[in-house]
Design goal:
Keywords: Membrane, Transmembrane, Transmembrane helix. The chain crosses the membrane at residues 65-84, 104-122. The chain has helices at 6-13, 22-40, 46-54, 59-62, 67-88, 95-133. It is mostly helical. The longest helix is centred in the C-terminal third of the chain and has 39 residues, at 95-133. It starts with 5 loop residues before the first helix and ends in a 7-residue tail after the last helix.
C-alpha cells in the first residue's frame, strides 16, 4: 500500500540530513534550473524534444520528461507571440528586435509543442490500448 500522506511525501523530498548533502542541493538546483528553462526557453533544450520523439512508444522513458514545464513553455510562447503581434501591429519601429524575438518564441513553441504533442499522443495511445485490453461482456 502506498502511503500518500504529507509527512511521507516530505520525507521522500527531504531525507534525513538533506541540508548537509551537497548531492541533494546539486540535484535540487539542477532540477529547478531545468524547470525554469523549460518554461522560459525550451529552445535551449532541443535534445529533450529529440528524446521524446525517439522514445514516443516507450511510456517508461517518456515519464522522465517534465511534461508540465513543456506545457507552460508552449502556452507561454504562444501567448507572447500573440502579445508581440498585438502590441506592435502596424509599427515598423524595432523591426529587427521584433523579428528576432518572434523567431525565438516560434522556436520555443516548436520545441515545446513537439514534446507536448508526443506526450498527448502517448497518453491517448495508452488509453486506447487499455480499452482494447479490457474484456467486454460479450467476450465472456
Amino acid at each position: 500500500m502506498k502511503n500518500n500522506t504529507i509527512r511521507a511525501q516530505a520525507r521522500a523530498d527531504f531525507p534525513t540530513g538533506w541540508w548537509r548533502s551537497w548531492r541533494w542541493w546539486g540535484s535540487a538546483i539542477k532540477k529547478d534550473v531545468t524547470a525554469a528553462l523549460l518554461v522560459v526557453a525550451p529552445v535551449l533544450l532541443p535534445h529533450r524534444a529529440v528524446f521524446a520523439v525517439r522514445n514516443r512508444r516507450d511510456p517508461e522513458q517518456l515519464s522522465r520528461l517534465d511534461g508540465e514545464g513543456f506545457v507552460y513553455g508552449f502556452v507561454g510562447a504562444l501567448a507572447l507571440i500573440a502579445m508581440l503581434e498585438w502590441t506592435t501591429s502596424g509599427s515598423n519601429e524595432l523591426l529587427p528586435f521584433r523579428l528576432g524575438l518572434g523567431g525565438f518564441l516560434a522556436l520555443n513553441a516548436a520545441v515545446s509543442g513537439t514534446v507536448v504533442a508526443v506526450l498527448i499522443a502517448a497518453r491517448l495511445r495508452g488509453r486506447k490500448e487499455a480499452l482494447i485490453a479490457t474484456p467486454t461482456m460479450s467476450d465472456e
